[in-house]
Specification:
- The structure is a single chain.
- Helix content is 37%, strand content 15%.
- The protein is α/β, with parallel strands linked by helices and 308 residues long.
- The strands form two sheets. A seven-stranded mixed beta sheet has the order 3-4-5-6-7-8-9, sandwiched between helices. Strands 1-2 form a two-stranded antiparallel ribbon.
- The longest helix has 19 residues, at 177-195.
- Residues 288-308 have low confidence and may be disordered.
């Protein structure tokens, strides 16, 4: 019996009024899939990493969820939590940028749109940067650029792989040119990481767009994506109006980009941790003259990366 059939039978046996159904959903007991419309027990969805049990749709999750899903228990050590955003341009549209920052911080509980830290994935040490779409659409401002740059530099010093989970609407317009500068800054750190011989993997989640796509999201040694994630630079309507052509229905999806070689693999969320751990393990530097490779014993962080 499918989950849909079970719920339908339950509803027939114990019919609820529309108000009661809405109250159950509002209380968080049930979650409705955006793709197929099926109501699922929220705890079951959480156990399946918020992937629909009926159709496999990947519901949006945020940075705290990603940390719990990927990092081995007790291995997450945050980096640069004290870096705070400012309003360098005194920007104001319908409200001031300072007010928007305060609202986003209160709503998300984050200082800005990314969390970075040291972690282990199935025992494999790495540095993680996880963007959070709750914070002003995951937009890339100076703090996002600075924290991701520092995370990559930490990975280079420690001799471990760097993984960035991308979820962004692009550069943050309230910081103007300063937000665009982050593209070059992160790209420079990635080039030094590559020259040192260490692995970098971006994971493209829904959505990954704008200046993030135009920089570090597409600079990976291996580029992974979640199923059906929206990935692109300009919006679909802008492209259609510019080209004056109708684009394919699946344009800018992970599957479309994989078909044309922009994405190396599409990995379901439930398999992501195991896949990343295997890639980190495969790309460790070999031992030289009996010495342990830097990835096995990251310098300066033995206490921060306890064995799982």
């Amino acid at each position: 019996m499918s989950l849909f059939d079970w719920f339908a039978n339950r509803r027939k046996a114990d019919p609820l009024s529309q108000d009661q159904q809405e109250r159950e959903i509002a209380d968080g007991l049930w979650t409705k899939c955006d793709a197929c419309g099926v109501l699922a027990y929220t705890k079951d969805l959480q156990a399946n990493q918020m992937v629909c049990l009926e159709c496999g749709h990947h519901m949006r999750v945020f940075s705290d969820d990603r940390i719990a899903q990927l990092a081995d228990p007790g291995s997450w050590v945050p980096l640069d939590e004290g870096v705070q955003p400012v309003d360098p341009l005194g920007f104001k549209d319908r409200k001031s940028y300072r007010d928007r920052l305060k609202e986003a911080q209160k709503k998300s509980g984050l200082s800005d749109a990314v969390q970075t830290g040291l972690a282990r994935l199935d025992g494999q040490p790495c540095v993680l940067a996880i963007m959070d779409f709750r914070f002003m659409g995951g937009s890339m401002g100076s703090v996002v650029g600075e924290k991701i740059t520092r995370a990559i530099e930490q990975a280079t010093r420690d001799g471990v792989g760097a993984i960035v989970l991308c979820a962004s609407g692009g550069a943050r317009m309230q910081e103007g040119m300063l937000s665009l500068m982050q593209m070059a800054k992160i790209s420079g750190a990635l080039d030094r990481h590559r020259e040192a011989g260490y692995l970098y993997i971006p994971v493209l989640t829904h959505p990954t767009t704008g200046g993030v796509t135009a920089s570090f999201a597409m600079l990976g040694d291996l580029i992974l994506a979640e199923p059906k994630a929206l990935i692109g630079f300009a919006g679909r309507r802008v492209i259609e109006q510019t080209l004056r052509e109708k684009l394919p229905d699946n344009f800018q999806t992970a599957e479309y980009l994989q078909q044309y070689g922009f994405v190396d693999a599409i990995v379901p969320r439930t398999q992501l941790k195991r896949t990343l751990a295997q890639l980190l393990r495969m790309h460790q530097k070999p031992k030289v003259d009996g010495a342990i490779a830097p990835q096995d014993t990251p310098q300066g962080t033995p206490a921060a990366l306890p064995q799982g």
